[in-house]
TrEMBL record:
Acyl-CoA oxidase/dehydrogenase middle domain ranges (all copies): 162-239
GO biological process: L-leucine catabolic process
Annotated organism of origin: Neoasaia chiangmaiensis
Sorted UniProt keywords: Flavoprotein, FMN, Monooxygenase, Nucleotide-binding, Oxidoreductase
This protein's name: Dibenzothiophene monooxygenase
Family affiliation: Belongs to the DszC flavin monooxygenase family.
Catalytic activity: dibenzothiophene + FMNH2 + O2 = dibenzothiophene 5-oxide + FMN + H2O + H(+); dibenzothiophene 5-oxide + FMNH2 + O2 = dibenzothiophene 5,5-dioxide + FMN + H2O + H(+); dibenzothiophene + 2 FMNH2 + 2 O2 = dibenzothiophene 5,5-dioxide + 2 FMN + 2 H2O + 2 H(+)
EC number: 1.14.14.21
């Protein structure tokens, strides 16, 4: 990945060049989930790319370098085609295998992982559509390495029950007009999947070329974390809707709610792994100590070792929970949309329960890291604050407080999770 800076870390020499994805490195405490033979080969191809992404992640954060190059190199090794069937040029990975790789990518750089969330969601949408021209056309594109972004969420003041972005006909061609507030990863994509209101008032999902002259995407995301995801504003001015083929109504695939929330959890588990790895490496190298410490060096100090153990255990638990939830979601997806959708609803409930545990657990772990390393851990150049900031930012999306209530409502009353939800300004006036 070019002459990228190695990732500095608090330690004896001030800098560590340790790569946590090298094939010759002993397995981490979290291990590797078994994969099919083809995916084991893919893991070998992905390893050096993930290693380079991890090594450059801090420099990218400090210098605010958007990950165009990492995503281009992931495209070269066909990482975005993980779920695309082999006969279309992909790897045919299962959902369980996909989330295993998302955890690894989140550990390398969670910005890159989140930037591809909409893409992998669109792949699921295509895989869930009936066989036909639309499905085959998009699988061809995705198998060739095309990446999809998304433009759904609108400005905070936009109405909750109707998208202000509109799809209309102009000179015999469908065009898109409006503004989107969140377009995570779309700067790095070839296509955008756009959710809009059709002339008859229905919700429509359509696709647009990232390079359409009427499309402007701004890198104006100013959140405290996930700063390189390009989660900024997009303006559509007579942008051509591709293929004149649109999907109406509830445009998401059956297991979409569980999928997108589990993706956040997989990224978070990866962040926890990265925090634990940075901490253990820093403690191993650290020479700075105190006269009232319990050991001559941090590496032999039982109190420091306990903190390292707690952070590492949190990463292990988060990873294990995500793997279990991925198995449940895969079972639901393979079961299909049965008459009452129970398999998918149960998968959603399991994922919502996982959120209530994983987010507080990993946020606490990202704080304990500072207790173990002391004042030097707060240096800006160390960048250790990014783990907490990134988890905190991911955990704020689609607030888990509502999902925890849904879990409680099911536990007490047997109420199943609601159908696809919408976000926006309520029509009820405040006062």
């Amino acid at each position: 990945m070019g002459n990228r800076l190695k990732q500095p870390i608090v330690g004896r020499q001030g800098v560590s060049n340790v790569s946590y994805f090298d094939l010759d490195r002993p397995r981490s405490l979290w291990g590797d989930a078994p994969l099919s033979d083809g995916l084991e080969t893919a893991r070998s191809a992905f390893a050096p790319v993930l290693s380079a992404i991890e090594e450059a992640s801090l420099a990218a954060e400090l210098q605010r370098t958007l990950p165009f190059e990492p995503i281009a190199e992931l495209r070269q090794v066909r990482f975005p085609a993980l779920r695309v069937p082999e006969n279309y040029g992909g790897f045919g990975a299962s959902l369980v295998e996909l989330f295993e790789f998302i955890i690894a990518l989140g550990a390398a750089d969670s910005n890159v992982a989140q930037a591809l969330r909409a893409h992998f969601g669109f792949v699921e949408h295509v895989l869930s559509t009936p066989d036909g021209d639309y499905r085959r056309r998009w699988l061809d594109r995705l198998g060739r390495g095309d990446i999809a972004g998304a433009a759904a969420a609108e400005t905070p003041g936009a109405a909750r029950d109707r998208f202000e972005t509109v799809l209309s006909e102009k000179n015999g061609q469908w065009v898109i007009n409006g503004t989107k507030f969140f377009t995570t990863g779309s700067l790095y994509a070839d296509w955008l999947t756009v959710t809009a209101t059709a002339p008859d008032g229905r919700t429509a999902k359509c696709a647009a070329s990232r390079h359409d002259a009427g499309l402007e995407i701004l890198d104006d995301w100013d959140g405290i974390g996930q700063r390189l995801t390009a989660s900024g504003t997009a303006h559509f001015r007579d942008v051509q809707a591709q293929d004149n083929e649109h999907h109406y109504g509830n445009t998401e695939f059956p297991h979409s709610q569980g999928f997108f929330q589990l993706y956040h959890l997989a990224t978070t588990a990866g962040i926890a792994q990265a925090a634990a790895r940075n901490l253990s490496d820093a403690v191993a190298r650290r020479r700075r100590s105190f006269t009232h410490a319990a050991g001559e060096l941090p590496a032999s100090d039982p109190q420091i070792l306990e903190l390292v153990g707690r952070v590492s255990s949190a990463a292990h638990a988060a990873t294990a929970i995500v793997r279990q939830a991925a198995r449940t979601l895969q079972f639901a997806q393979q079961s299909g949309q049965d008459a009452d959708g129970l398999a998918i609803k149960r998968a959603e409930l399991e994922i919502y329960q996982a959120q209530e545990v994983v987010f507080p657990l990993t946020l606490d772990a990202a704080t304990l890291l500072f207790d173990a390393l002391g004042g030097t851990a707060t240096l800006r150049r160390a960048g250790l604050d990014r783990f907490w900031r990134n988890i905190r930012t991911i955990a704020c999306h689609n607030p888990r407080v509502y999902r925890t209530r849904i879990v409680g409502d099911y536990a007490v009353n047997g109420t199943l999770p609601p159908a696809q939800w919408r976000v926006g300004a309520s029509s009820v006036s405040g006062g």
